[in-house]
Amino acid sequence: MNTNSTTNTGKSPENTSLNNLPFDQFITKFEQRLVGLFEENNDIHELSCQRGLPKSILKGIMDGEPLSVAIQQEYGGRGAHVKECLGVLAAASYQSLPLSLMFGINIALFLEPLAKYGEDEVKKHVLSNFVANQHMGGLMITEPAYGSDALNMKTFYQKNENGYHINGEKHWQGLTGMADYWLIAARAKDAQGNFKAPYDWSDVIQIDHSNPQEQQAMIDAMKYWVQNFDIDGFRADLAHLTPLPFWINARTQLSEMKHNLIWLAETEEIDYHEAFDISFTWRWMHAAEAFCQISAQH
Ligand SMILES: Cc1cc2nc3c(=O)[nH]c(=O)nc-3n(C[C@H](O)[C@H](O)[C@H](O)COP(=O)(O)OP(=O)(O)OC[C@H]3O[C@@H](n4cnc5c(N)ncnc54)[C@H](O)[C@@H]3O)c2cc1C
Questions:
Q1: Which domains does the chain have, with CATH numbers?
Q2: For 132, which of 9, 91, 220, 266 could close a Cys bridge (C-beta 3.0–4.6 Å)?
Q3: pLDDT per residue as tens digits for the range 138-167
Q4: Among 172, 176, 183, residue to substitute to test ligand 1 (most atoms within 8 Å of Cβ)
């Protein structure tokens, strides 16, 4: 990540209260701003024929703090409500497709994963620069030989005393030349150059879940426990690290052996309820913990 540590705030006095406006007023102001920039002060048809947007127009757009809708309040944003994110995307799409793509990349490909998986210190720094200094971010996953097959990507990182060294080749990245920060998908390698397992789980290293034979071997292992020990169900730790189609396949096959198996997942991914009956999530646990602490204080 490029961490431009700008500290001056790009906010104009007019904007300091934008965050506090109810959403209908916030979005109306933003729409009016776009109309002014695209239709009243410039020729929208001329702009549509150019690549990118002139700097002054881009600044005018970003002065309306559109990306604050995708940032949590604790980091200076409006709260990351889906409805507000979609409202900004709709307003942008009405005027300019490239603008809507630009917001889509920032919101869905950068801010959402950062909010979900980023460390607090990183989030504080990066998100404050989004709010105050109009910074942007993009996502690098695709590699020249591994587009759809992203799980086989070759880009890797090694930890060194100064941080991380990343080595690999990426292409197709949206916001190239514009993003101040990048999320880069890379795999861990140890000092000997071997790919590392997630955490210390060397037994699951480089399992290829896209291989049907691998899938069937895992399901057969699960069948063994039902057949020989009549177990009541399965608890899957970090279920979402294994693709959902695998779990659906596993459940379908195992249900034929025993229809009332219980499927419990450790996951934050709601889609996994297609295969699992119940889930436990750390986010929920921490939220409940915080709620109880606040309740205890009052
Ligand atoms: C406008 C644009 C913006 C993009 N922005 C980003 C970005 O910001 N960040 C990023 O990381 N990437 C980005 N991408 C890359 C995009 O996500 C990749 O193009 C995508 O992952 C496909 O990879 P590929 O082009 O290498 O195609 P390939 O993986 O080579 O696939 C080529 C074709 O084969 C088909 N195919 C592939 N595998 C299979 C299979 N197993 N079975 C059947 N058919 C298959 C695919 O559907 C496709 O039709 C962007 C692409 C575009 C066009």
A1: 13-135 (1.10.540.10), 136-196 (2.40.110.10), 212-297 (no CATH)
A2: 9
A3: 999 999 988 887 777 889 888 788 888 999
A4: 172
